[in-house]
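Hello, quick one for you while I still have it in my head. My current little project is about how a certain protein chain folds up. You're getting the sequence in one-letter code plus the fold written as tokens. Would you mind checking whether the tokens look sensible for this chain? Here's the protein in full, and shout if anything looks odd to you:
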Amino acid sequence: MKKHLQVPIAAALLLIVFAVAIIIYNEQQAEELSATADKNAALLIRDYSPTIGNKNARVTIVEFFDPACETCKAFHPFVKHLMSAHPGRINLVLRYTPFHQGSDYVIKILEAARLQNRFWETLEASYESQPAWASHGNPQPERLWTLLGGVGLDLNKARADMQSPTIAHRIQQDMEDARQLQVTKTPGFFVNGKPLVRFGYEPLQELVEAEIRQQY
């Protein structure tokens, strides 16, 4: 081998080895996440979990979310788009993962709103006003109260209801389930029990549509 070619060839081989190692690692990680999801399938949905869509749908999306998470906010309309694109074929279940400071406070508001059948409206308002209350350097979740005017909540009742130990227990349970399912960031998606391993809009759409083709 000519001497001047030795260095570039060695660098190319090193890159190939590195790329193969990354592929093997990703495949191993995907297998591990899938195995964990299979093992803990019973933990994906709780009887208290907020649900929307057709309860008899053959495709269920479980989303672990954090109301202070910008990516969760960005994915919210995309998930709604998927549901509207396949009417009656998708059921959405939400689980709580308040990783950000102050998120548990907002989740308590959401659960209190659910007692007034205003959960989804309150969730929409929470996402819409997220920049006003969810600054990661200075979260002010209490500000959300002033931004819920159009939701139709009885605010005094919601303030009282959010103190319920039942709500605190639900948040704790969801966090424990997320830990068992290795949900370490939000949003975390499972479609018919299968974890979304390769994150992004397109992989989620592919996973959902693959399940729809298989089930319908």
In short: The helical segments are 3-39, 70-85, 103-114, 119-128, 130-133, 155-161, 165-180, 201-215. The longest strand covers residues 59-65.
